[in-house]
Amino acid sequence: MMQKLAVPIAAWLMLAVPTIAANRVVPSHHVGQWNPCPLYACEAEDTVDDLQSVRLPEPVVPDFALSHEASPHAWQFQYPEVKPIYAGLGRRSPEGDWVTSRFAQPLVPRESTRVAVLGYHNFSNSKRPTEMLMRTAEFCQQMQYIRDAGLTVISMQDFLEWRHGSRMLPARCVLITIDDGWKSVYTDAYPVLRAYGYPFTLFLYTRYVNVQGSSMTHEMIREMMEHGATIGSHSSNHLYPSEWKKLEGDAEAYDAQIVREIKESGEKLRKWYGNCSTYCYPGGYHTPRMQAMLQRAGYSAAFTVLESKVECKEAAYEVHRYMVFGVDKEIFRRGINFDGEPGKIPSRKGIAAAEAPARAFFPKAFEGVVEFPPEDEKSATEHTEQKEKKQPAPTAPQPQSEPQNTNA
Question: What whole-number distance in Å separates Cα of residue 192 and Cα of residue 364?
């Protein structure tokens, strides 16, 4: 009897000991089975043909890139079915979106994870910061602070699989999204993100892709897709809430516009780039009729502009985001404060301290920084100049005629 049991026990030990030694957290067996967008299967032939006609460059790690210093436990928290290709990211298929193959932080039960979704727009060091435009140098500081704070930057695919119950993540995660498709995303933000090895999502509205001016080209977008970028839809024409409300009285016109903005934008992005499973509401405006179309069009999630940490049971088409403005540093601080105490994480001092390592790590982000006077000082100066222009120019004094000498 003992001899009969010896073989099964020995076989079990051979399988169990390596697993115990590696101390891995084993993911759900559903990880490799979940399909984020059933519509892809219907369009597979067109997608593959489009992708095969473009020769994408091989990933190249830049000279200024961080050396990957894996923590002693980095390999402890990994998904072995995903082979890393770029900066700890991999793909389950050649056409798939990026998924993280290993995490430096411990994985936790799904309900214990919170995600801060950060939203950005435009970048520059030579233009005055606005709500939509952030200094490239400040963006680099923020990326450094995320790293210093021990937060985990996840890909959109990580986020979707966690939301759908097939993936575990670390407790404190950050999802980086960038709206619209400004060329500065490629020239300013992308080098910083690539240097840190952070995945990110581009929410593009199709009317502003590959057109003259400050928009990105197809080549720029495809290059970023090879280095951590995922594509999402930001509609076709980026209609603002006021434009939608004008259509509310005409149900037929309203529904036709929903089809153009939501369904057709996704179809076009999938034709250009292969995948597009998420949507971002322009201006945050959304209605139940829009959400119904999102579901029919095969989108897995849609993002708003309302602030809050995201938990695993968040409504799929009302995902919260922190829209990080270039003139309001508090939004970023609120976004990555996971402790619930304002000012504790991050503190003003902490973000300021991140500038030194960020500058040393990626000095290009700090080159060409133009200093502007504060907005109130600028307004006061402009007011004075305008006042001076309105006043008539002083006239030269007229010489007085000499009195006549009557005694001459």
Answer: 9
Long-range CB contact pairs, 84-90, < 8 A, 24+: 85/59, 86/59, 86/197, 86/226, 86/227, 86/228, 87/197, 87/198, 87/199, 87/227, 87/228, 88/197, 89/155, 89/197, 89/199, 89/228
Structure tokens at 137: 């140098």
Of 365, 331, 405, 263, nearest to 117 by C-alpha is 331
Neighbours of 99 (CB within 10 A): 24
Do the bridges between strand 89-90 and strand 99-100 make them parallel or antiparallel, or are there none, so unpaired? antiparallel
The SS3 call for residue 204 is: strand
pTM for this prediction: 0.76
Residue 387's pLDDT is 53
Mean pLDDT, to the nearest integer, of 262-272? Answer: 96
- Which domains does the chain carry? 81-370 (3.20.20.370)
Contact 356, 348 (CB under 8 A): no
Among 83, 21, 95, which Cα is nearest to 273's? 95
The Cα 111–Cα 129 span in angstroms is 38
What pLDDT score was predicted for residue 341?
74
Q: Locate the DSSP E strands across 208-298.
A: 229-233, 278-280
292: exposed, middle or buried (Cβ count in 10 Å: 0-12, 13-18, 19+): middle
pLDDT of residue 382: 55
DSSP string, 142-158: HHHHHHHTTPEE--HHH
Please name which of 95, 336, 104, 132 lies closest in space to residue 230, comparing C-alpha atoms: 95
Contact call for residues 321 and 117 (beta carbons, < 8 A):
yes
> Which carries the bigger pLDDT value, residue 378 or residue 151?
151
